[in-house]
TrEMBL record:
Acidic residues: compositionally biased ranges: 271-281
Domain of life: Eukaryota
Function: Component of the exocyst complex involved in the docking of exocytic vesicles with fusion sites on the plasma membrane.
Stated name of the protein: Exocyst complex component
A Pfam family per the record: Sec15_C
Coiled-coil regions listed in the entry: 65-135
Family: Belongs to the SEC15 family.
GO cellular component terms, semicolon-separated: exocyst; membrane
Native species: Sphaeramia orbicularis
Range of residues in the leader sequence: none
Amino acid sequence: MTHWSARLSPAQLNSEPARATCRMASVEAAAEHERILREIESTDTNCIGPTLRSVYDGQEHGLFMEKLDARIRNHDREIEKMCNHHFQGFVDSITELLKVRGEAQKLKSQVTETNRRLQDDGKELLNSMEELKQCRVQQRNIATTIDKLTHCLPVLEMYSRLQEQMRAKRYYPALRTLEQLEQTCLPRAGQYRFCSIMAENIPKLRTQIRDTAMSQLRDFLESIRKHSDKIGETAIKQVHMQERTPKKEAAAGAGTDGGSPLSEQDSGILDVEDEEEEEEDVSRAQDLVDFSPVYRCLHIYTVLGLRDARLVLQPHSNMHETLEGYRRYFNQIVGFFVVEDHVLHTTQSLVNRAYVEELWETHSSYCDDPDLVLDLKNLIVLFADTLQGYGFPVSQLFDMLLEMREQYGEILLKKWNITFRYWWTSDNYSPIPVSSEQEYRHYTSQFPLQDPELEKLPFPKKLPFSEFVPKVYCQLKEFIYACLKYSEDLHLSSTEVDDMIRKSTNLLLSRTLSHCLQYAIKKKNVGLAELVQVIINTTHLEHCCHFLEEFISNITNVPPDTVNATKLYGTSTFKDARHAAEAEIYTSLNAKIDQFLQLADYDWTAPVQGGGTLAPSDYLTDLIAFLRSTFSVFTNLPGKVAQTACMSACKHISTSLMQLLLDPEVRQISMGAMHQLNTDIKELEPCVFTMHRSVLVFQLLDLFTQWDWSAYLADYGKPSCKYLRVNPHTALALLEKMRETGRKNNVFAQFRKTDRDRQKLIDTIIKQLRNLITQHQS
């Protein structure tokens, strides 16, 4: 009412319409307050903030507070009525609860008493149960102990028996006991400390038995050394008897068959049948040798699984270090040959005919000196010839020598690999200067250089290749000589020797020398000048391959055009190395160009200069100087290689500059920047872009700087198009960057007609390019 009275005059308030209006406003306010009170009663307290705010935003909050107080008093009266209605029931419930508490106290006392009597009565039972538990545990422990002792006692008994056998030196039964103890008894006994100690001692006992048996065998060998003269004398008598027997049979008409002195029955020592005096001598010679250590050692090593070990003739551990070691060993073979033959026929494969071959397989792998292997080959040839003179078959020895040839070849390859790497690392990668005829003849005698033009030049002059070429060529010939030396005295035909030398030389070329060349080319810090010299060197080495063919034919007396003759792989080896060096030149040249291009710092928003000539960028001046000095080095290369390098540099520079233009980080490009880039390209033109009209970046810059879009859009897709290599997508991307520059930099472009016209022209060209792209895609 106060709000409305403030707005109406006294005359208006006394009029009937004014009073009606006031009553209507009061009714609406009362209804609104009633709605707000219902909303407060039915809504969560967290959400009544907007409701209360609507009250305080209005002009009737005083009236609302009165209604709110009245509503609160109504609720208080209802609560009071409800409490009065339920008060008697509450009092009755409290009375009942007091009665129940007394009964609960009585029940608790009874339960406590009952629990006390139960605990007293159960103590005796608990004590009895604990005693029973202890008895059961003792019973189980006793049973377990009996079971373990049942398994452990045999172990202890067997180990005690093993100790007795070792003390009595009964090694063979001791090995059997060890085997039974390890495989049967110890696994049954379980994991006990004494079992672990026994298991650890078993390998030691085996080693002790093996060493003892070997010691006895060495004593046997020493005995053989002491009595070798008598054994040899007996063997000579047997050979003499073999020669006399046919004569006796022919004279007497009857007699006994004279078996071979080295037959299986006689075994080279035993049971020689002749006159009584000779038989008595042989018997005494036989008594000098007790073979029981051999058989005992054989049985022991069979049980140990070391049957393959060589027992009779054990080589020295350092036999492979010197030729004298092999010489002593072969002398030992000859001296003990009779003993070997006896063991061969009285045991099963203790010594067989492949013994010497296996000896080589075991010890030759330690040899890394080709001269030692060559001397060893000569010693084996002498040994085989000696045995062959006595009538023994030695074909397997020569077969073994051919197999040794592969090992010898591998040793030679290792040696020449070191030699090649040394000459390569010590090379100066420079043409050889010669100042006199004598010096010139010195190099041409080492390498077959045939260059009439070079011979006509006056002194001083330079050979095109470096020191590496004549040294490598001489080393190739030395390798061929080394292969030829091994082939001597092996009873091979000239064709076989020629084939063997050619195959070895091919391995040297295709594997050793090729790897050295590839390593030298691919290693770090190899300059372009060095790579150029590598190409020149490999070119001359490639041209000399037919001289190597003739050299091999001359020393083997086998014509190079013989049917099925092996051809040398030198041409392909040097050609592959040259191609690798060329590829490395292209890669290194492009990497160096990238270093200069990384210094490029274009101002992509630079304005177009009003007059004067643009200067080339600083980085470009350095790049041009580098390219000129590099291309001057390429003058020594074949024309195709130099041209390819130039074209590779041209293509790489073009691609790199295009990447600069299309870099996503460069969002704006002005025409001034395009003119600067065009100036740089023209500066590079005499040095690199000899065929600039076919280079993409040149055509693209011509298109933009000359603004020749009508010709481009009209002739696109035609073979005669001036901008044939410019892709519409590339042109569109650059135009959009130029449009972005016009929008952001020309703040007052709307006030200059020329700028507005240019922006409209760019938009029109962009639209035409998009239509062109759509047409060609469809």
